[in-house]
Amino acid sequence: xxxxxxxxxxxxxxxxxxxxxxxxxxxxxxxxxxxxxxxxxxxxxxxxxxxxxxxxxxxxxxxxxxxxxxxxxxxxxxxxxxxxxxxxxxxxxxxxxxxxxxxxxxxxxxxxxxxxxxxxxxxxxxxxxxxxxxxxxxxxxxxxxxxxxxxxxxxxxxxxxxxxxxxxxxxxxxxxxxxxx
Amino acid sequence: xxxxxxxxxxxxxxxxxxxxxxxxxxxxxxxxxxxxxxxxxxxxxxxxxxxxxxxxxxxxxxxxxxxxxxxxxxxxxxxxxxxxxxxxxxxxxxxxxxxxxxxxxxxxxxxxxxxxxxxxxxxxxxxxxxxxxxxxxxxxxxxxxxxxxxxxxxxxxxxxxxxxxxxxxxxxxxxxxxxxxxxx
Lengths: 181, 184
Known about the structure:
- The structure holds two protein chains of two kinds.
- Chain A is of the alpha+beta class.
- In chain A, 30% of the residues lie in helices and 32% in strands.
- Chain A contains six helices and seven strands.
- Chain A has helices at 20-26, 30-34, 44-53, 106-120, 136-144, 173-180, and strands spanning 10-14, 62-68, 74-81, 89-96, 126-132, 148-159, 162-172.
- The radius of gyration of chain A is 16 Å and the shape is globular.
- The relative contact order of chain A is 0.15.
- By secondary structure, chain B is of the alpha+beta class.
- Chain B is built from five helices and seven strands; from the N terminus they run E-H-H-H-E-E-E-H-E-H-E-E.
- Chain B has a seven-stranded mixed beta sheet with strand order 1-2-3-4-5-7-6, sandwiched between helices.
- In chain B, strand 3 (79-90) and strand 4 (95-102) form a beta hairpin.
- Chain B is globular and about 60 Å long.
C-alpha cells in the first residue's frame, strides 16, 4: 500500500517554523498576489506563528507543505479546512509558490494526493474550493482533477482596483471513486 | 421647501422594524432555535442551552459593520418575531452574509420574512455602503428561496450534497444580491 502522503512527484508533510522564510518569498510573487486576497504584508513573526500553529495537523486543520520528492524542496502549501464534521465537507486551498515550479505537473500531483487523503484518510464526502474566474490555469488544473464548476459568486472579491467573480467548484466522493476505476 | 429633508427610518419596513438585540430576548431566542420547524433547513442540529443563548446575545448585542445583528419586531404588536443579521462583513469587499429566521409561528407566511429581508438589504446598501449581500440556503427550502428571488437575489451556485441532516445530504444554494438589484 502506497503512503497516503506521497504522489508521483511531490510529498505532503506538516508545516514547520523553518518554512516561513520560503513562504514569505512566495507572497511577493506577482502571480500569487494576482489571485490572492491576502493584501497586507505579513511579518516574519506572523508567518512563523502561523506555520507553528499549523504544525498540529488535524481533521479541522489539515494543512500541509508540498515538497518535491526529488530533492525535498518546499514548493507549495495545501490546506483542507473542515468546519462541520456532520457535513463531511472540506474547503481546499492550494498554492504553488514560485513561477519555476508551475506548469510542471507538481500542482496536479499535489492536488491528486491531497484529494486522495481527503477521501481515504479523512473520510470526507465532498471537497470544495473557490477560484478567481480569470485564473484559467487553476480552473483547468481543478477540472482535470475531477472538480465540477457549481456556480459563480458575482463580484465577490475586490483586489487590484476592481471586483472579481469567484468560481465555486467541488468534487464528490462518488465522482472521485468512479474516476479511480 | 422643507427645512430638513428627513429620510425615513432606515431600519423600518412596511410590517416590521429592526432593533438591536437585547439580553431580555433569551427566552424567545431559545424557543425559536429549539423549534424543529424553524431550524429544519438550517445548519443547527443540537439543542441550544439558555446559557449559550445568553452568551450569544451578549456578544452580538451591539450591531456593527462586522456583525450587524437585529431583532425583528412586528410593528402592529410591538413584539419580537425573529432575528436577522448581516454577518462576516468584509470591508475591502464591501460584502456581508445575510441570515434570517422568523421564529414565531404566527408570523410565518404573512409577508414578514419578505419585508424583513428587504429592510435589512436596504440598510446594508444605504447605511453600511455594501456592494454585495450573499446568503446560503438549503435548496429544498422552497418558501425561503421564493422570498429571496422575489426581492432580487440571484441563484449563483448550487453546492451539491453540502448539508447533511435528517439522514440525507441536501444541496445548498449560494444566492447574491448586488447594489441596485433590490426589488420592491
